[in-house]
Amino acid sequence: MTVPPLIKREFKEYAEKHRLSPQEQEKLMAIVEAVYQKSTYDPEEPVGVVSAQSLSEPATQMTMRTYHFAGTAGIQVTLGLPRMIEIFDARKEPRTPTMTIHIDKEHQSIEQVKKIAEQIKEVKLKDIVVSNVIDLTDMWIKCRLDSAKVKEFDIDAASLPKKIKLRGAEASYEGGNLTLKSKNLDIRALYKMKYALLETHIKGIKGVSQVVVTKEEDEWVINTLGSNLKQVFEIEGVDYARSFCNNMFEMYEVLGIEAGRTAIINQAQYTMEEQGLGVDVRYIMLLADLMTVDGEIKAIGRYGISGQKASVLVRASFEETKKHLVAASVRGEKDQLKGAIENIILNQLAPIGTGAFDLVGRIPEGFVAEEEEETTGKKASKTPSGEKSKAAKEKKHKKVKAAKPKKEAKKSKKSRK
After folding, report:
1. With contact defined as beta carbons under 8 Å apart, do 71 and 84 qualify?
2. Better-scored residue on pLDDT, 303 or 12
3. Domain holding 172: CATH number?
4. Whole-structure pTM value
């Protein structure tokens, strides 16, 4: 069995890198071929059933721990069983969205990386406010700004009133104070306005609440809590070829369906390995292929793959049985019974494994059929099947002819009497 071209290419690169002799290459290639042969599956093997079992069984051994500090970054992310449910249910928004942002070689100094991190982190007004006061008589809110924070985040304080867009209010800046005058005389509305004012976006990328710069091997990497790949890729110095997030829908929308598929594989594998569970990546790849084969990400469930299968009986066997059977009968659907589940339901041979093949053959010449041996009770001679049948007919015909004269002789004896 020959190995695929990709494995051959990787083998060649490995051999050149480690300067292997022809004899060593030959031995190593024999091992690679043996491993590859063990990795293949038999024709018509139910790989879907095996994959489902291989993924779901280890998932039951996962802890219910929902949060974990991701590596050295110190950012809390959802892992364990809740994260697996998020991935395979294809949740649009993960509970803790994160990004891993790689920086290109030209911007690898710590000063440049910090500047990029400052451009990414979201700054709200509450981050630069020391104190706030509400005047219920004149209906205004005054916020005292922290000059050190304003300088640290490189914010132009004079331009802040333009960024504050609240209905029924007018903002102004003077002497280190930001004042918001309300046109509405309702006290409750003024307190709501105070909350909206402090949550106003001032700088950075919306939704990115935490940014941590860490060194991985020989390069600086930025880890974030919150994600927005599209805006991050617009920042100079970001290596968009290697940066990614844990939101597969965002990867799909920004980089395409193949990137979404890769995100599903990487996130599922990472979640499993973090729990100490070793699952063959091919099972995860098969499931990721199934979720993305139509060009969009679908969930594993009643509103995704399971609820959209071609077989009526398969859909009915999963969930909402009556709904599927009634809808199929109204539409006049036909079930072709091509899968394993529907044939098992009907107590028929499932088209998997040996049941997927029909036996086709012919009786070889030179052997007598067993039926003739049973009728005659004699061992038949090894003659061709055509000659055998002719000889049998001739014998039968002769017996009939021989029987007729005996009957005639009996009749003549009776007449003489």
Report:
1. no
2. 12
3. 3.30.1360.140
4. 0.72
